[in-house]
Amino acid sequence: QLFTKSHTIFFPHLPTPERGLPVGGTPRG
User: Would you put residue 16 in left (φ > 0), alpha (ψ -120 to 50) or beta?
Assistant: First the structure.
């Protein structure tokens, strides 16, 4: 799991709509 306080978390293996998570969001996958 990757947690970033001031950045958007990106998961390249996920589809584009699910790729970008908002700050403070829950990491998926």
Answer: alpha
User: In terms of C-beta density within 10 A (0-12 exposed, 13-18 middle, 19 or more buried), how is residue 12 classed?
Assistant: exposed
Q: State the amino acid at position 17 in one-letter form.
A: P
Q: Hey, what are 25's tokens?
A: 């969001």
Residue 28 CA neighbour count, 13 Å, CB half: 14
For residues 15 and 12, what is the distance between their CA atoms, to the nearest angstrom?
8
Look up the pTM and report it.
0.14
Per-residue pLDDT of the chain (29 residues; tens, 9 = 90+): 565 555 566 666 555 555 555 555 555 54
